[in-house]
User: Fold these one by one.
Assistant:
Number 1:
Amino acid sequence: MTTSSTATAAAPAAPASGLRGRKRERTRHAIAEAAFRLFADEGFDAVTLTRIAAAADVAPATVFTHYASKEDIFFGRRLEFEPGIAEAVRGAATGAELVERLRSACTEAFGTILAADSLPQARTFSRILLDSPSLRRSYLPLARERRDQLLSVLLERAGERAADAGVRDELETFASLAGAVRELGFDALHAALAAGEPAGSVFEAATAALDRGYGRLVRAYGDAPFLEAA
């Protein structure tokens, strides 16, 4: 089963400025807080947008002003916890270094999620996610989005070589495999969080899954010429 990081089906809104912007952000935050309380108490699938509006003391139309769907609310903080894929790729010279930097980016994301001020919300997020088949289905486009993001940066990094169909195929395969490894790490993270394991044990389980997967990628792609920086 593949699951997401603590995170959004759409990017967070731009930082607000001025009185109107601050009011908008307060309303957006109140909706998200009310939604998560309901999701935690009753399960994601049982909660309606109308009930979220009532719990947040706003009109249903106000909810739609800020969020497109329940999934949008649930994944609304995704970009705060996403690994820095573009930065990792652009800073690597070889395939082995690229894999290591991708692994490190995920590890850093785990540390952010498991920080003391994020941990309670992360546990709630993981429990709600694993209990909802519809949320797990809605995650699939997010996984494809991350794979496509990685592929785009890899193609940019390859320079003129990206015009070669064979190189593009190899990069697409690598992006898919690297994305699958990332999801294995987050699967382990969410399972351990939902089970109530201590933060240290959660981190160990998640990083062990990453190490196994990325270790195989290093052996397979560490010396691959098409992964060398142009």
Number 2:
Amino acid sequence: MPFEGRAIRWLMIVGTSLVGIAIGATGHRLVAAPPSFTETRLLRTDLAGIDNYELIVSRLETAPGWSHGRHYHAGHEIVYVLEGNGALDTEGKPEQRLQPGTVSYVPPGQIHAGHNTSRRETFKFLLIRIHVKNEPISIELN
């Protein structure tokens, strides 16, 4: 085989290999699932006159079928539903349906879980926390 033919074949093999490596290195971004929820922090501030606590207000948007397993918080948590449908499972209580306009309160230390009950629609809510400073936001149980 003449030198030119071997050089072209070698360049094709190297080129194809490099393209394959590049696709393999970035391919996970092409097929990765979107995040199951997004949290937009709207406010985080100290609470005047209440030592060791802060106020955190966030807007959450969850994907269809999203769920947050059993967990609890050191502080208070208030949920106000903007859009979609969800459910709150609080230990020792019946499941609470969450729909637009619903307000729910979870006291400190109360074990609970939440989920988007729809397989097609997003579930959007405001999450208002009176959070103990220097404590984890959430303590996950499973």
